[in-house]
Specification:
Blueprint (H helix, E strand, L loop, with lengths): L2 E5 L8 H14 L4 E5 L5 H5 L11 H6 L9 E2 L5 E4 L4 H8 L9 H11 L7 E5 L6 H9 L2 E7 L8 H14 L5 E8 L6 H13 L13 H5 L7 H4 L4 H17 L1
Parallel strand pairs: 1-5, 1-6, 2-4, 2-5, 6-7
Antiparallel strand pairs: 3-4
Helix pairs in contact: 1-11, 5-6
Bound molecules: adenosine-5'-triphosphate (ATP) and magnesium ion.
Length: 258
Protein backbone atom coordinates (compact mmCIF):
# COMPACT_ATOMS: atom_id res chain seq x y z
CA UNK A 1 0.00 0.00 0.00
CA UNK A 2 1.33 3.38 -0.97
CA UNK A 3 1.90 5.83 1.86
CA UNK A 4 0.45 9.20 0.87
CA UNK A 5 2.17 12.35 2.19
CA UNK A 6 0.65 15.83 1.80
CA UNK A 7 3.33 18.54 1.86
CA UNK A 8 1.45 21.57 3.04
CA UNK A 9 1.63 25.04 4.58
CA UNK A 10 -0.73 27.83 3.58
CA UNK A 11 2.14 30.29 3.90
CA UNK A 12 3.76 30.95 0.51
CA UNK A 13 7.39 30.35 -0.36
CA UNK A 14 8.33 28.21 2.65
CA UNK A 15 9.88 25.34 0.69
CA UNK A 16 6.90 23.05 -0.04
CA UNK A 17 7.76 22.49 -3.69
CA UNK A 18 11.51 22.25 -3.08
CA UNK A 19 10.79 19.61 -0.44
CA UNK A 20 8.24 17.70 -2.53
CA UNK A 21 10.51 17.50 -5.58
CA UNK A 22 13.72 16.63 -3.74
CA UNK A 23 12.19 14.28 -1.18
CA UNK A 24 10.40 12.42 -4.00
CA UNK A 25 13.64 12.11 -5.99
CA UNK A 26 15.51 10.82 -2.92
CA UNK A 27 12.78 8.27 -2.13
CA UNK A 28 12.98 7.06 -5.75
CA UNK A 29 16.78 6.87 -5.51
CA UNK A 30 16.30 4.61 -2.52
CA UNK A 31 14.35 2.23 -4.74
CA UNK A 32 10.89 3.39 -3.64
CA UNK A 33 8.42 3.75 -6.50
CA UNK A 34 7.17 7.28 -5.98
CA UNK A 35 4.39 9.37 -7.51
CA UNK A 36 4.63 13.14 -7.16
CA UNK A 37 1.21 14.77 -7.46
CA UNK A 38 1.33 18.47 -8.29
CA UNK A 39 -1.80 19.98 -6.77
CA UNK A 40 -0.71 23.60 -7.23
CA UNK A 41 -1.96 25.61 -10.25
CA UNK A 42 1.47 27.32 -10.26
CA UNK A 43 2.82 23.97 -11.50
CA UNK A 44 6.21 24.60 -9.92
CA UNK A 45 6.82 20.96 -9.05
CA UNK A 46 5.89 19.99 -12.61
CA UNK A 47 8.45 22.30 -14.21
CA UNK A 48 10.91 21.71 -11.38
CA UNK A 49 11.03 18.00 -12.21
CA UNK A 50 11.61 18.77 -15.88
CA UNK A 51 8.15 18.52 -17.47
CA UNK A 52 7.41 21.07 -20.20
CA UNK A 53 3.92 22.27 -19.28
CA UNK A 54 3.24 23.59 -22.79
CA UNK A 55 3.62 20.13 -24.26
CA UNK A 56 1.05 18.47 -22.00
CA UNK A 57 -2.23 17.34 -23.51
CA UNK A 58 -3.75 16.53 -20.13
CA UNK A 59 -3.01 17.36 -16.53
CA UNK A 60 -4.41 16.95 -13.03
CA UNK A 61 -7.41 19.14 -13.93
CA UNK A 62 -8.64 16.45 -16.31
CA UNK A 63 -8.43 13.77 -13.60
CA UNK A 64 -10.31 15.88 -11.06
CA UNK A 65 -12.99 17.40 -13.27
CA UNK A 66 -13.24 15.35 -16.50
CA UNK A 67 -12.86 11.91 -14.87
CA UNK A 68 -9.86 11.14 -17.10
CA UNK A 69 -8.04 8.17 -15.48
CA UNK A 70 -4.80 9.25 -13.79
CA UNK A 71 -2.98 6.65 -15.83
CA UNK A 72 -3.51 8.85 -18.92
CA UNK A 73 -1.94 11.83 -17.18
CA UNK A 74 1.03 10.32 -15.28
CA UNK A 75 4.41 11.23 -16.77
CA UNK A 76 7.78 9.56 -16.47
CA UNK A 77 10.62 11.70 -15.18
CA UNK A 78 14.39 11.58 -15.72
CA UNK A 79 14.64 9.90 -12.31
CA UNK A 80 14.11 6.13 -12.34
CA UNK A 81 11.06 5.07 -10.30
CA UNK A 82 9.78 8.66 -10.04
CA UNK A 83 6.52 9.55 -11.78
CA UNK A 84 4.51 12.76 -11.76
CA UNK A 85 0.91 13.88 -12.15
CA UNK A 86 1.53 17.34 -13.63
CA UNK A 87 -0.42 20.53 -12.97
CA UNK A 88 -0.98 23.61 -15.10
CA UNK A 89 -2.97 26.80 -14.55
CA UNK A 90 -6.05 24.70 -15.45
CA UNK A 91 -5.96 23.39 -11.88
CA UNK A 92 -7.03 26.86 -10.68
CA UNK A 93 -10.29 26.19 -12.52
CA UNK A 94 -10.62 22.84 -10.77
CA UNK A 95 -10.48 24.62 -7.42
CA UNK A 96 -13.59 26.54 -8.45
CA UNK A 97 -15.45 23.68 -10.15
CA UNK A 98 -14.91 21.30 -7.24
CA UNK A 99 -17.13 23.48 -5.07
CA UNK A 100 -20.29 22.20 -6.73
CA UNK A 101 -19.27 18.55 -6.99
CA UNK A 102 -20.59 15.60 -5.02
CA UNK A 103 -18.26 14.51 -2.22
CA UNK A 104 -16.10 17.46 -3.20
CA UNK A 105 -13.49 16.83 -0.49
CA UNK A 106 -12.81 13.31 -1.80
CA UNK A 107 -12.32 13.90 -5.52
CA UNK A 108 -8.51 13.51 -5.43
CA UNK A 109 -8.81 10.48 -3.13
CA UNK A 110 -11.23 8.80 -5.55
CA UNK A 111 -8.96 9.53 -8.55
CA UNK A 112 -5.94 8.11 -6.71
CA UNK A 113 -7.84 5.04 -5.50
CA UNK A 114 -9.00 4.25 -9.01
CA UNK A 115 -5.42 4.65 -10.32
CA UNK A 116 -3.90 2.51 -7.55
CA UNK A 117 -6.53 -0.17 -8.08
CA UNK A 118 -5.53 -0.54 -11.73
CA UNK A 119 -1.76 -0.60 -11.23
CA UNK A 120 0.33 -3.69 -11.79
CA UNK A 121 3.33 -2.35 -9.86
CA UNK A 122 2.11 -0.29 -6.92
CA UNK A 123 3.78 2.85 -5.64
CA UNK A 124 5.53 2.90 -2.28
CA UNK A 125 5.04 6.65 -1.78
CA UNK A 126 2.77 9.35 -3.13
CA UNK A 127 3.90 12.89 -2.32
CA UNK A 128 1.45 15.76 -2.90
CA UNK A 129 2.65 19.33 -3.40
CA UNK A 130 -0.10 21.61 -2.06
CA UNK A 131 -0.83 25.21 -3.07
CA UNK A 132 -0.27 28.01 -0.55
CA UNK A 133 -3.85 28.10 0.78
CA UNK A 134 -6.18 26.08 2.95
CA UNK A 135 -8.82 25.92 0.20
CA UNK A 136 -10.58 22.93 -1.29
CA UNK A 137 -7.51 21.66 -3.17
CA UNK A 138 -5.54 21.38 0.07
CA UNK A 139 -8.54 19.81 1.82
CA UNK A 140 -8.60 17.22 -0.98
CA UNK A 141 -4.92 16.49 -0.32
CA UNK A 142 -5.52 16.11 3.43
CA UNK A 143 -8.57 13.91 2.86
CA UNK A 144 -6.51 11.60 0.63
CA UNK A 145 -3.32 11.53 2.71
CA UNK A 146 -1.99 9.20 5.39
CA UNK A 147 0.27 11.89 6.78
CA UNK A 148 1.18 15.56 6.61
CA UNK A 149 4.66 17.04 6.25
CA UNK A 150 4.81 20.75 7.10
CA UNK A 151 7.79 22.77 5.88
CA UNK A 152 8.45 25.72 8.19
CA UNK A 153 10.70 28.52 6.99
CA UNK A 154 13.20 29.75 9.57
CA UNK A 155 11.92 33.31 9.70
CA UNK A 156 10.19 35.61 12.13
CA UNK A 157 6.61 34.88 11.11
CA UNK A 158 7.08 31.11 10.99
CA UNK A 159 4.78 30.30 13.88
CA UNK A 160 2.05 32.58 12.64
CA UNK A 161 -0.36 30.48 10.64
CA UNK A 162 0.83 27.17 12.11
CA UNK A 163 -2.00 27.17 14.67
CA UNK A 164 -4.59 27.60 11.92
CA UNK A 165 -2.91 24.88 9.86
CA UNK A 166 -2.95 22.47 12.82
CA UNK A 167 -6.65 23.27 13.38
CA UNK A 168 -7.37 22.45 9.74
CA UNK A 169 -5.49 19.16 10.02
CA UNK A 170 -7.50 18.38 13.17
CA UNK A 171 -10.77 19.31 11.43
CA UNK A 172 -9.95 16.98 8.53
CA UNK A 173 -9.02 14.19 10.95
CA UNK A 174 -12.31 14.56 12.83
CA UNK A 175 -14.62 14.99 9.85
CA UNK A 176 -13.06 13.56 6.72
CA UNK A 177 -10.07 11.27 7.29
CA UNK A 178 -9.45 9.68 10.68
CA UNK A 179 -6.19 7.99 9.61
CA UNK A 180 -4.48 11.35 8.96
CA UNK A 181 -1.45 11.97 11.16
CA UNK A 182 1.35 14.49 11.42
CA UNK A 183 4.52 13.07 9.85
CA UNK A 184 6.57 16.04 11.02
CA UNK A 185 7.54 19.67 10.75
CA UNK A 186 10.58 20.39 8.61
CA UNK A 187 12.69 23.47 9.25
CA UNK A 188 13.74 24.97 5.91
CA UNK A 189 16.10 27.70 4.64
CA UNK A 190 18.04 27.51 7.90
CA UNK A 191 20.97 29.87 8.21
CA UNK A 192 23.13 28.86 11.17
CA UNK A 193 24.93 32.23 11.09
CA UNK A 194 21.80 34.08 12.15
CA UNK A 195 20.34 34.11 15.63
CA UNK A 196 16.89 34.25 14.04
CA UNK A 197 17.19 30.80 12.41
CA UNK A 198 18.42 29.34 15.69
CA UNK A 199 15.69 31.04 17.75
CA UNK A 200 12.84 30.11 15.39
CA UNK A 201 13.98 26.48 15.34
CA UNK A 202 14.12 26.42 19.16
CA UNK A 203 10.65 27.98 19.33
CA UNK A 204 9.08 25.50 16.89
CA UNK A 205 10.74 22.59 18.74
CA UNK A 206 9.29 23.91 22.00
CA UNK A 207 5.72 24.03 20.65
CA UNK A 208 5.92 20.82 18.64
CA UNK A 209 8.21 18.69 20.76
CA UNK A 210 9.18 15.41 19.15
CA UNK A 211 7.41 16.32 15.92
CA UNK A 212 10.20 18.32 14.26
CA UNK A 213 12.41 16.34 11.86
CA UNK A 214 16.04 16.02 13.02
CA UNK A 215 17.02 16.88 9.46
CA UNK A 216 17.16 20.63 8.95
CA UNK A 217 17.26 22.06 5.42
CA UNK A 218 19.84 24.86 5.15
CA UNK A 219 19.58 27.79 2.79
CA UNK A 220 21.64 26.51 -0.12
CA UNK A 221 22.28 28.23 -3.45
CA UNK A 222 22.24 24.98 -5.43
CA UNK A 223 18.78 24.08 -4.05
CA UNK A 224 17.54 27.45 -5.32
CA UNK A 225 19.10 26.94 -8.76
CA UNK A 226 18.03 23.35 -9.49
CA UNK A 227 14.37 24.09 -10.48
CA UNK A 228 15.42 26.44 -13.28
CA UNK A 229 17.25 23.45 -14.80
CA UNK A 230 14.22 21.20 -14.37
CA UNK A 231 16.20 18.85 -12.17
CA UNK A 232 15.99 17.63 -8.59
CA UNK A 233 19.08 18.44 -6.56
CA UNK A 234 20.24 14.80 -6.75
CA UNK A 235 20.68 15.22 -10.52
CA UNK A 236 21.66 18.89 -10.65
CA UNK A 237 24.41 18.54 -8.05
CA UNK A 238 24.67 15.06 -6.52
CA UNK A 239 27.51 16.11 -4.21
CA UNK A 240 25.94 19.27 -2.82
CA UNK A 241 24.83 19.88 0.73
CA UNK A 242 21.26 20.01 -0.65
CA UNK A 243 21.49 16.43 -1.92
CA UNK A 244 22.95 15.29 1.39
CA UNK A 245 20.17 16.82 3.50
CA UNK A 246 17.26 15.67 1.34
CA UNK A 247 18.71 12.13 1.33
CA UNK A 248 18.85 12.35 5.10
CA UNK A 249 15.23 13.53 5.16
CA UNK A 250 14.19 10.60 2.95
CA UNK A 251 15.79 8.18 5.43
CA UNK A 252 13.99 9.89 8.29
CA UNK A 253 10.66 9.81 6.46
CA UNK A 254 11.05 6.10 5.70
CA UNK A 255 11.90 5.53 9.37
CA UNK A 256 8.83 7.42 10.58
CA UNK A 257 6.45 5.78 8.11
CA UNK A 258 7.85 2.37 9.07
N1 LIG B 1 16.77 25.40 1.14
C1 LIG B 1 16.72 26.36 0.21
N2 LIG B 1 17.80 27.08 -0.11
C2 LIG B 1 17.74 28.07 -1.05
N3 LIG B 1 16.63 28.39 -1.70
C3 LIG B 1 15.49 27.69 -1.43
C4 LIG B 1 15.48 26.65 -0.47
N4 LIG B 1 14.23 26.14 -0.39
C5 LIG B 1 13.50 26.84 -1.28
N5 LIG B 1 14.25 27.77 -1.90
C6 LIG B 1 13.78 28.76 -2.90
O1 LIG B 1 12.81 29.57 -2.27
C7 LIG B 1 11.72 29.83 -3.12
C8 LIG B 1 10.44 29.26 -2.48
O2 LIG B 1 10.58 27.85 -2.36
P1 LIG B 1 9.42 26.85 -2.83
O3 LIG B 1 8.95 27.19 -4.19
O4 LIG B 1 9.89 25.48 -2.59
O5 LIG B 1 8.31 27.25 -1.76
P2 LIG B 1 6.76 26.90 -1.77
O6 LIG B 1 6.35 26.80 -0.35
O7 LIG B 1 6.50 25.74 -2.64
O8 LIG B 1 6.16 28.21 -2.46
P3 LIG B 1 4.61 28.40 -2.89
O9 LIG B 1 3.88 28.68 -1.62
O10 LIG B 1 4.64 29.58 -3.83
O11 LIG B 1 4.16 27.15 -3.56
C9 LIG B 1 12.07 29.19 -4.45
O12 LIG B 1 12.67 30.14 -5.27
C10 LIG B 1 13.08 28.10 -4.07
O13 LIG B 1 13.97 27.80 -5.11
MG1 LIG C 1 5.14 25.57 -4.24
Amino acid sequence: MAHIIAVTNQKGGVGKTTTTVNLSACLADKGKRTLLVDLDPQGNATSGIGIDKESLKKNLYDCLIEQVPMDAVVQHTAVKKLFVVPATMDVAGAAVELVNMDRREYVLKAALEQHLGEMKKPYDYIVIDCPPSLGLLTINALAAADSVLIPVQCEFYALEGLAQLMQTVEMVRTNLNDKLRLLGLLMTMYDGRTNLSIQVTEEVKKYFSGQVFHTIIPRNVRLGEAPSHGEPITVYDPHSKGTEVYKKLAREVIGRVG
